[in-house]
Specification:
The chain is α/β, with parallel strands linked by helices. It is 34% helix and 15% strand. The model has no long low-confidence stretch (mean pLDDT 76).
C-alpha cells in the first residue's frame, strides 16, 4: 500500500454527488444572510410612526361605554388616581363594580354607598402600604354621565370624602377656550 497525502477521507468513496458536495464543503446556502437596508429602515419608520400615533402622553383615559361627559373650558391633564365611573345605575372603580345607585334614586336623599366606601378605603390602604412615609394625596376622579341625578353625584362625592379622598376631580370633555376679548367698535 502506498503512502497517501493526508486529508479528508471520510465518505469520499460514496459515489453519490450530493454526498460528495457536502463532504467537500461545496453547495448549499451561504451562511451570511443579506438584509436589505432600505426594507429595514422602512419597517422601523412605520413602527415608530405607529407607536407615536397610539401613545398618549397627556393621560387620556377612555370613558365607559354609554357615558356622555360634560364639557368644560378650564381643564387639567389627567392625574394618576382611582376613577369612579357612574353609568346608568352602576358604580365602578377602575373598571370593577362597586355599587348601585338605585337606592339613592328611589329614596331621593343623600346616603353613603357602602360598597364604594369599602373599595376606595381598600385602595387608600394599599397606597399607604406601597408608599410608606409619604402623604396620601387623597385624589379621586369622577367619570359621571351628564344625565346622572345631582343627588347621586353628591352621594358619590360624600362617600369618596368619607373614604379618605377629599380632593375630587371631575372627568370632562375639553372644549377650546374662547378668545375672551370682544371687539371694540
Amino acid at each position: 500500500m502506498t503512502i497517501q497525502e493526508p486529508g479528508r477521507r471520510l465518505m469520499h468513496h460514496i459515489p453519490l454527488n450530493f454526498v460528495q458536495k457536502k463532504v467537500a464543503g461545496g453547495g448549499g446556502r451561504s451562511t451570511n444572510a443579506s438584509l436589505s437596508l432600505t426594507s429595514m429602515i422602512d419597517f422601523l419608520v412605520v413602527t415608530v410612526v405607529f407607536l407615536l400615533m397610539t401613545f398618549s402622553a397627556s393621560g387620556e383615559t377612555p370613558t365607559q361605554k354609554g357615558v356622555h361627559l360634560p364639557k368644560a373650558e378650564n381643564t387639567l391633564d389627567m392625574i394618576d388616581a382611582p376613577i369612579v365611573a357612574i353609568t346608568g345605575s352602576l358604580i365602578m372603580v377602575d373598571g370593577n363594580p362597586a355599587g348601585n345607585t338605585r337606592a339613592i334614586e328611589d329614596s331621593k336623599r343623600l346616603q353613603r354607598i357602602d360598597e364604594l366606601f369599602n373599595n376606595l378605603k381598600g385602595k387608600r390602604e394599599l397606597w399607604k402600604q406601597t408608599h410608606p412615609g409619604k402623604d396620601f394625596p387623597g385624589v379621586v376622579v369622577l367619570q359621571i354621565d351628564q344625565d346622572v341625578q345631582a343627588i347621586v353625584v353628591k352621594s358619590v362625592f360624600q362617600t369618596a370624602a368619607f373614604a379618605g379622598y377629599p380632593n375630587v376631580s371631575f372627568m370632562v370633555n375639553s372644549i377650546p377656550k374662547s378668545g375672551g376679548g370682544g371687539e371694540k367698535h
